[in-house]
Amino acid sequence: MTKFIKLFSLLLLLSLSMCAQVKKHILQYTTPVKSAEFSDTCWDDLKPLAESIGEKRIVMLGEQFHGDGEAMKLKSRIVRFLHQQMGFKVLLFESDYFSLNHGYDAFKNGRISFDSLLYLSVFSIWTGCQQMDELFQYIKESTTTGNELIINGMDNRGISGYGFRYLQPAIESFLRSARIPFVKASEYPYFLSVLRQSATLIFGKNKAAIDSMVQLLPIVIDQVSERPVARDHLNSSFYLNVLNGLLINYQLSLHYFYGNEYKLHRKDHPLHDYQLAENLQWLVTKKFPADKIIVWAHNEHIEKGEMRPHQSSGYNSMGYLFTRKPGMLRQSYILGATCYEGSGKMVGHPEATKTTRPSRNSIEAWLHGTGNQYAFSDLSHLNRIDSSARFIMRTYFNTESNQEWTKYYDGILYNNFAHPCIEKARNKLNGQQLSGQDPE
Question: What's this model's pTM, rounded to 2 decimal places?
Answer without folding.
Answer: 0.91
